[in-house]
């Protein structure tokens, strides 16, 4: 491994104060109860892992789940069907933007990383709402290699009770024929997908699968087709940090996806996976200290894919 435990620990200590610049979101009350001092990072390459901080603590994936649902929808329906409903362009708007929905003709969400795009993607996963939920959970379990991974029902319930904006986005899309059917059932799937709980070790393993062309780092089994793993990494670069993706590409240069829980999933094309948690978020809804520690690691070991 390119980094020793003490070195990772030192970079984490350097990034820690950045959490003080962030805030824990309150629009999902259950997330507001997260410990602001929680901080963990795991780096995985093949069978090796290096961990620092709260590497075993469980948290919900939130928007980090959007790359997983996209992989599943692409595996189920193929590129043509998926990209007829969801665009491929960054927005310059926040993750929950409704404005960006009106910008394309015919109206469709600009990309699968903003909420509207992710909800549309979830609607494309094959099966009934119950089957979609089960298949998403099974897929996360397979990628993370832990069949005990579960959904945090408390967080899901809390999000459900405060989901007016996601409902509005969904009804808007339904009226424009982007999605069909029962909105409450679809949002239940989307919210449960966001509420799947992992720890940093599992998140890093998921990152190493996506990074390593879709192959399981241990068995070598192809869990995601290489073409789809490449599409996902590209979206992580162009849209993974929402309207802060450009700055992140310059400072860090590693395909990554954030979640409003403070989760950060990194997938380096050389097969290195990163799983990070630090709940306080910066103004763009990305983990303040999480981004900083990934920047430190990337710059110290020249990991930017553009370097
Ligand atoms: N479940 C959250 C939502 O839909 C995910 C958003 C995020 O992580 N940025 O609002």
UniProtKB/TrEMBL annotation:
The reactions it catalyses are: L-glutamine + H2O = L-glutamate + NH4(+)
Protein name, UniProt field: Glutaminase
- Which residues are recorded as binding substrate? 63, 115, 159, 166, 190, 242, 260
Q: According to its UniProt record, which protein family does this protein belong to?
A: Belongs to the glutaminase family.
Q: Which organism is it from?
A: Alteribacillus persepolensis
- GO biological process: any one? glutamate biosynthetic process
- Which keywords accompany this UniProt record? Acetylation, Hydrolase
Q: What is its EC number?
A: 3.5.1.2
Return the InterPro entries for the record. Beta-lactam/transpept-like, Glutaminase
| UniProt keyword Lipid biosynthesis, yes or no | no
Pfam families (alphabetical): Glutaminase (PF04960)
NCBIfam families with a match to the protein in the record: Gln_ase (TIGR03814)
Could you tell me one molecular function GO term of this UniProt entry?
glutaminase activity
Q: Does the keyword Acetylation apply?
A: yes
- The gene that this protein is the product of is glsA
Subunit composition and interactions: Homotetramer.
Identify which top EC class this enzyme belongs to: hydrolase
């Amino acid at each position: 491994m390119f980094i020793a435990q003490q070195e990772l620990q030192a970079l984490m200590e350097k990034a820690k104060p950045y959490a003080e610049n962030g805030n824990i979101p309150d629009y999902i009350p259950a997330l507001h109860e997260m410990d602001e001092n929680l901080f963990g990072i795991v780096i995985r390459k093949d069978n090796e892992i290096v961990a620092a901080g709260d590497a075993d603590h469980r948290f919900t994936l939130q928007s980090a789940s959007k790359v997983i649902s996209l992989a599943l929808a692409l595996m189920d329906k193929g590129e043509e069907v998926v990209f007829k409903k969801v665009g491929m362009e960054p927005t310059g708007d926040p993750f929950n933007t409704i404005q960006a929905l009106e910008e394309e003709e015919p109206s469709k969400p600009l990309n699968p990383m903003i909420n509207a795009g992710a909800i549309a993607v979830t609607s494309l996963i094959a099966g009934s709402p119950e089957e979609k939920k089960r298949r998403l959970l099974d897929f996360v379990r397979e990628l993370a290699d832990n069949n005990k991974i579960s959904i945090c029902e408390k967080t899901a319930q809390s999000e459900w009770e405060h989901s007016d904006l996601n409902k509005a986005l969904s009804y808007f899309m339904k009226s424009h024929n982007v999605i069909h059917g029962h909105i409450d059932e679809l949002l239940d799937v989307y919210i449960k997908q966001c509420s799947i709980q992992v720890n940093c070790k599992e998140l890093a393993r998921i990152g190493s699968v996506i990074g390593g062309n879709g192959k399981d780092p241990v068995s070598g089994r192809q869990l995601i087709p290489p073409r789809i793993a490449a599409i996902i990494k590209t979206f992580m670069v162009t849209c993974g940090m929402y309207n802060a993706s450009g700055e992140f590409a310059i400072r860090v240069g590693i395909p990554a996806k954030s979640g409003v829980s403070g989760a950060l999933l990194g997938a380096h094309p050389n097969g290195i996976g990163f799983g990070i948690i630090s709940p306080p978020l910066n103004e763009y809804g990305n983990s303040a200290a999480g981004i900083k520690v990934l920047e430190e690691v990337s710059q110290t070991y020249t990991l930017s894919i553009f370097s």
